[in-house]
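Suppose you are handed a protein chain with no further information: no name, no annotation, nothing but its sequence. What can you learn? This example shows the usual starting point.
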Amino acid sequence: MKRKSFFYITSLLICFAATYACKKTTDGFLSPYIHYEQSPILIPKGRAFLSAGLNGDGTSQPFSVRVLHYYDKATGKVLDTLFAKTFPVQIWTGLYNPKTDTTLQLINAKLKTVNTAPISVNPASGQIVANYGALKLPGGEYQFDLEIKNETGTRVYPKIGDFILRDTTTYDAVPALGTQYDKLFKVGNESVSKLAGVPVLTITRVADTPNIVTVQFLDKNGVYFNPKKGEIQRRPATGLNPSPPYLQTLQDFTNFYSITDQAMIFKFPFTPFPLNQLPNGFNAYYRIPTNLVHIDGQPDGMWSLNPRFPIRIYVPGSYLVTMQFPDVTHVP
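A reasonable first move is to predict its three-dimensional structure. Written in structure tokens, the prediction is:
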């Protein structure tokens, strides 16, 4: 009896081993703990944005990601229709070369307008991608579910994503990039300088098109300084035989520039503008000659006016930049 039992048990073990050997084993790993390191993720509305990707927690690569639903975090309402909306956005179809792409025609030949969702999730990494179309979406906190697949299988991660669409400016200026000022340099001895009253800098996005920056300088009474008459000039650099001889202006950030009786107008074909900073960051420096100004509390003819302001634009459109001097009167 014992001998029969031994053979019976042995036969079962052999069959089990044979069955296990023939069964296909599952490859890879799909972690139940995939997550975003940052939560919530802060997205500035209207600016190009790319978040960090998912932390796979050892999940086998590659994996694919698909959004199942978007939600309003406060109410739990499904917002798939809202986030499925598309808006026109410019994209590059070729590599931009600032040395050779020197005309609007050459640059525009490498740009294409496509309709795309303002918020999306990269299907290979889980990175949240945003573009300036997000200006059309209401600010607030949102969540989304992800379906993630790899060779192991498929798993759903409810409300794994949490992001805040935060209202912000469509540009950076003061204080993010620096300060505006009006510096006085002594005529005949530019090593002597002082600050005038802090000018009032106003930046307004006035239209969706065209892509231009209009810059105006005004005295305390609202009188414009006239670029066409040479009343707004480039500010000389300091030192002996400096190279370049002048400090940077917005003209150095674009090849497309014109002037009127009241303004300087700078075209930009794409954002951000300026694309890259120059040695003095994103600042623009100018000079107004001494014979054109009366400065409160100062002798006429002693000081030139030297305004500076920083700016960088992230959303296409038309912008008006005005700088008004609180202690300066235009002299005809």
